[in-house]
């Protein structure tokens, strides 16, 4: 797989990463053996960037990733995140970005991952009660101590990005980006390019809907939280979004590729500073996703997708509570 640079500090990763969240929580029943096999297969296929966070599980996803890469550490770029506070029972307890918590969270993640350093460490959500200068200052100390190599932010707004980057170089911003979610194109991407910050696109397949595999709520396991956590899967929005996904399938069928591959190829084509991290817990879907790197879009493909997916085309917000994003 080809590689791309994230930021101007030297971080280079595979042009696609692997989102590991669903291996442990939110998207139905987990299977650690298959999840581990999926991570190993990703490395075989040249995927080097593995994305996790302390809150996934909670806490167990970092442990799973750590076990999976233990004998393969030199091949892997481990990315993790802090800031969304959870308890062992799964409860959510807000966001913290104070310096003390930054240090505590990093040490805990290092223990769970079983690594000496985290390659890319993100603030998962911005704490509105703590100046970003304090948070990133503490993150910068982690770099000085060798616990972290590169810094990232997630779901941060333009002003926050500028202020953070002035304290310590930020290598990557992670935010949702797909045919369904194009908000970042207006303000966020131009600022990142001005400052030399890379962009990591999560949910590039619209949380699975753009693959064409989800056509009704019955296609999801009972334990899958998408219908309860994400408004685009709510009953009042679902049908419209499935119709949009059908347009991807039509164009993909004409091109002889899978819908998910077309959707991923579109994200990849938006700039060589963009790295999508489609999440999956199965080797079959991983291999399909990796195949998107071989899909080239013609001008006709781009025009048809642009017509079908103008900014704001998807029905419903990304989250039930949008107050925690783009801060």
Residues in helices, as a percent range: 25-40%
Q: How many extended strands?
A: 12
How far the N terminus sits from the C terminus, by CA atoms, comes to: 34 Å
Strand % is 15-25%
Write structural notes for this entry:
With 327 residues, the chain is an alpha/beta fold. The chain is 37% helix and 16% strand. The chain contains eleven helices and twelve strands. It has an eight-stranded parallel sheet with strand order 3-4-5-8-9-10-11-12. The chain has a two-stranded antiparallel ribbon with strand order 1-2. Strand 8, helix 4 and strand 9 form a beta-alpha-beta unit. Helix 1 packs parallel to helix 10 and helix 8 packs antiparallel against helix 11. The protein is globular. The protein starts with a strand and ends in a 19-residue tail after the last helix. The mean pLDDT is 96.
Produce the secondary structure layout.
Elements: E1 3-6, E2 11-14, E3 18-19, H1 32-44, E4 49-51, H2 60-69, E5 77-82, E6 84-86, E7 92-95, H3 99-113, E8 118-123, H4 132-144, E9 148-154, H5 158-167, E10 172-176, H6 188-195, E11 198-202, H7 226-229, H8 235-255, H9 259-268, E12 274-276, H10 283-290, H11 299-308
Parallel strand pairs: 3-4, 4-5, 5-8, 8-9, 9-10, 10-11, 11-12
Antiparallel strand pairs: 1-2, 6-7
Helix pairs in contact: 1-2, 1-10, 3-4, 4-5, 5-6, 8-9, 8-11
Summarize it:
Helix content is 37%, strand content 16%.
Features:
11 helices, single chain, two-stranded antiparallel sheet, 8-stranded parallel β-sheet, alpha/beta, 327 residues
């Amino acid at each position: 797989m080809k590689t791309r640079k994230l930021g101007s500090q030297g971080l280079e990763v595979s042009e696609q990463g692997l989102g590991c969240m669903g291996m442990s929580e939110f998207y139905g029943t987990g299977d650690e053996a298959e999840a581990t096999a999926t991570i190993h297969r990703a490395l075989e296929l040249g995927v080097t960037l593995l994305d996790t966070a302390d809150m996934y599980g909670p806490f167990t996803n970092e442990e799973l990733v750590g076990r999976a890469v233990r004998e393969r550490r030199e091949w892997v770029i481990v990315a993790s995140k802090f800031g969304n506070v959870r308890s062992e029972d799964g409860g959510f307890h807000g966001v913290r970005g104070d310096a003390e918590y930054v240090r505590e969270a990093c040490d805990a993640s290092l223990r769970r991952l079983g690594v000496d350093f985290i390659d890319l460490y993100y603030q998962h959500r911005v704490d509105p009660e703590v100046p970003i200068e304090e948070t990133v200052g503490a993150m910068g100390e982690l770099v000085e101590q060798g616990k972290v190599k590169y810094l990232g932010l997630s779901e941060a707004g333009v002003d926050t990005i500028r202020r953070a980057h002035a304290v310590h170089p930020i290598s990557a911003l992670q935010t949702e980006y797909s045919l369904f979610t194009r908000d970042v194109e207006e303000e966020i991407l131009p600022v990142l390019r001005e400052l030399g910050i890379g962009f990591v696109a999560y949910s590039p397949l619209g949380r699975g809907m753009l693959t064409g595999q989800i056509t009704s709520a019955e296609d999801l396991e009972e334990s899958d939280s998408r219908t309860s956590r994400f408004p685009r899967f709510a009953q009042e929005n679902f049908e419209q979004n499935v119709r949009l996904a059908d347009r991807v399938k039509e164009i993909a069928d004409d091109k002889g590729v899978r819908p998910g591959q077309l959707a991923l190829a579109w994200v990849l084509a938006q700039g060589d500073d963009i790295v999508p991290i489609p999440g999956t817990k199965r080797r079959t879907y991983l291999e399909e996703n990796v195949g998107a790197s071989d899909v080239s879009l013609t001008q006709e493909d781009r025009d048809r997708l642009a017509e079908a997916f103008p900014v704001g085309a998807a029905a419903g917000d990304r989250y039930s509570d949008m107050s925690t994003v783009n801060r």
